[in-house]
Amino acid sequence: MTRFITTFAYVGLLRPAPGTWGSAAAVALAIAIDYALGFWVLVAATAGVTALGFWACGRELADRPGEDPGEIVIDEVAGQWLALLFPAAAFWNMGMHDWAWRAYPGWVAAFLFFRLFDIWKPWVIGRADRRGDAAGVMLDDLWAGLFAGVATVIAAGVSHGLLM
Hints:
By secondary structure, the protein is mostly helical. The protein is about 70% helix and about 0% strand. The chain is built from seven helices and no strands. α2 packs antiparallel against α5 (about 105-120).
């Protein structure tokens, strides 16, 4: 069961770049959740997948300390969903509940910023990645998601002339 969870229904077994495949699958599922069930369900799903990811990574890596296997992508899902909450919250806050196609640039920006920070691993993201335990596996992507969400908001503000 933990293998199914940590590989996000075996998406993590896709090659090349399982993390990117995990992030892409996460975006598609987040859009479906948000569009069909609403913003607050996406928030709850993000919290749930994060908690499940900590648990499953702990179980999966218990016998392999210091590893961060590429096929584990539940951390990508949690981090990507965290990043996607930022553009989703902006549209929800504006009362645009049928936002799906108007939010497309925000979703793309959140995806690209997340991949950038997840690969680059600046500052606290890299520190979390070097922990060498299950918490580090999850935390580096959660930090990357937070950074990506903030970068998405800043980019949206700049592109709309709000932060000039």
